[in-house]
Write a structure and sequence with these properties.
about 500 residues, mainly beta, Porin, 2 helices, 27 strands
Length: about 500
């Protein structure tokens, strides 16, 4: 193919839409610490396992629940987030994506219930750290000599559409028990309901604009060479999550340490619908000097049982309060165990291997989906600066490393997974807390930086080839490991805690 004849691209655009959403939900994600529960805990970087978890104790360390034994209603009312996202070479060399994302999301609601026995603490909660929704739409056009058997240039059009929404609502309750003034234990349990809607469409076409084409000096009717693939997954899944926590305080209450164990979720119910389709038509193999076989298929499976796993994790934390009681330093580290590759949607069907194209999965695994995670250790540092009883400032820093291979975008060990760009993230938080009688008002900012370098293009429309026999690819180029993703995000938090009379 004479790629020197390629003209300058007429258009190359990538539009990302990250829609407004407000359901009480949290996304299952490979970034376990992207969001923290409850505004004060967020501003402390989530470094609250050793103390100062407040209403979010039911999640971070249930042994901290209700240590003051005062009824309270806590609401993290909203997050306003401004996110700047850039993906370089997503669909080939110099076919980039840039977007500005605005989102608003409610996050956390809890009620600490007073008890007659001061040794016990009880709390009910709905958790909503995040809800993940992304949509990518890409179209790339150029005029190149991609069809070699035909004289002249062809119009080449590559199209890509990606849509993914994942919601995971946690509803639960927890309790704590004071063994003595220095030692507390606790537990919490949640029902987790996950809902996924995912769609991926990829299509490429090449054709001449004239009504007739010239092949070996002879006129023929024009035709369109086309190759495309679509996949769609919808599922809901219900499981149970259990946590155990403990805390020890020094007698002067200047120092405390805590531990929290989160057990793997216990699957209960769930079903999935899966659809995959594809087409290849009028694609010529120049090596064999003949057209490849035309292919068109559509496979649909409904009401398939799901299995969605979350890892075992253990968190350790400490808190130190200065003698003056005006400053506190907090630290938390959490280890998340790996998840071996497992079949999240198991569909045992045997499709024709001819339709697989360059998809590196077996014909019997074509309709199935897999998931997995590597071990991850994150840490967080937080601080408090007290000015008086009515005003203090919270700040923090936390890591947020990806639990997935940052190069694994579409496949996992040559098996289908849900497409996702993976990034390592870092969060910095700062904000004031003000008290007015029995009301506590919390606000603050979080800056997030994330990056991923050297992952594989989702498709290569920059250097397309009509047909590559070695990979069975049609109307696209070989994918390269030169894509890069960057996120810069600024989020505004607002929360209220209302003390209630017994």
């Amino acid at each position: 193919m004479n790629l020197q004849k390629a003209k300058a691209n007429k258009t190359a655009y990538l539009i990302f839409i990250y829609c407004f959403y407000s359901a009480l939900a949290t996304a299952q994600t490979d970034n376990y610490w992207s969001w923290s529960f409850n505004t004060p805990s967020t501003l402390l970087g989530g470094a609250v396992v050793g103390g100062s978890a407040g209403p979010s104790a039911v999640y971070y360390n249930p042994s901290l629940i209700g240590q003051e034994n005062i009824a309270s209603l806590s609401l993290s009312a909203s997050i306003i987030s401004l996110q700047f996202l850039k993906v370089k070479n997503l669909a080939g060399e110099n076919i980039n994506g840039e977007d500005f994302i605005f989102k608003i999301q409610p996050r956390f609601l809890s009620y600490v219930i007073p008890t007659k026995n001061e040794k016990w603490g009880v709390e009910a909660v709905v958790l909503s750290p995040t809800s993940d929704e992304k949509e990518y739409v890409l179209q790339h056009e150029s005029e190149i000599d991609i069809i070699q058997r035909v004289e002249g240039l062809e119009k080449y059009v590559g199209y890509l559409r990606y849509n993914r929404r994942f919601d995971d609502t946690w509803v639960g309750a927890g309790f704590s028990y004071k063994i003595n003034p220095q030692f507390f234990i606790g537990s919490s349990a949640f029902v987790s309901t996950k809902i996924l809607n995912y769609q991926f469409i990829q299509n490429a076409k090449a054709y001449q604009k004239s009504d007739t084409i010239i092949v070996n000096g002879q006129s023929e009717p024009k035709y369109i060479a086309e190759s495309g693939f679509e996949e769609e997954v919808k599922y809901w899944d219900v499981s149970f999550v259990i946590k155990l926590g403990a805390q020890y305080k020094s007698k002067n209450e200047q120092f405390s340490i805590g531990a929290n164990v989160t057990f793997p979720n216990i699957p209960f119910l769930g079903t999935a619908d899966v659809r995959k389709s594809g087409i290849r038509s009028n694609v010529f193999n120049n090596q064999s000097d003949q057209f490849t076989s035309n292919q068109s298929f559509a496979e649909v499976e409904r009401d398939i049982k799901t299995l969605v796993k979350s890892p075992f994790s253990i968190a350790l934390g400490m808190q130190y309060v200065t003698v003056s009681r005006k400053n506190s330093i907090l630290f938390t580290v959490e280890y998340f165990h790996s998840l071996d590759t497992y079949n999240s949607i198991n569909i045992n069907s045997n499709v024709d291997s001819e339709i697989l194209g360059d998809i590196p999965v077996s014909s019997t695994d074509f309709m199935s989906y897999y998931a997995g995670a590597k071990p991850v250790t994150n840490f967080a540092i937080g601080f408090k600066q007290y000015f008086n009883e009515k005003l203090f400032v919270l700040g923090g820093f936390r890591t947020d490393f990806s639990a997935s291979s940052t190069s694994a975008f579409r496949f996992l060990e040559d098996k289908f997974k849900i497409n996702q760009v993976h990034l390592d993230k870092y969060h910095i938080t700062l904000g004031p807390v003000a008290r007015f009688k029995n009301i506590q008002v919390i606000t603050g900012l979080q800056y997030t930086y994330g990056r991923n370098r050297g992952f594989e293009n989702i498709v290569n429309y920059a250097n397309p080839v009509e047909y590559i026999p070695s990979t069975n690819q049609s109307l696209q180029g070989l994918r390269q490991g030169n894509a890069e993703a960057y996120i810069n995000e600024l989020a505004l938090f607002f929360g209220l805690t209302l003390g209630l009379k017994k």
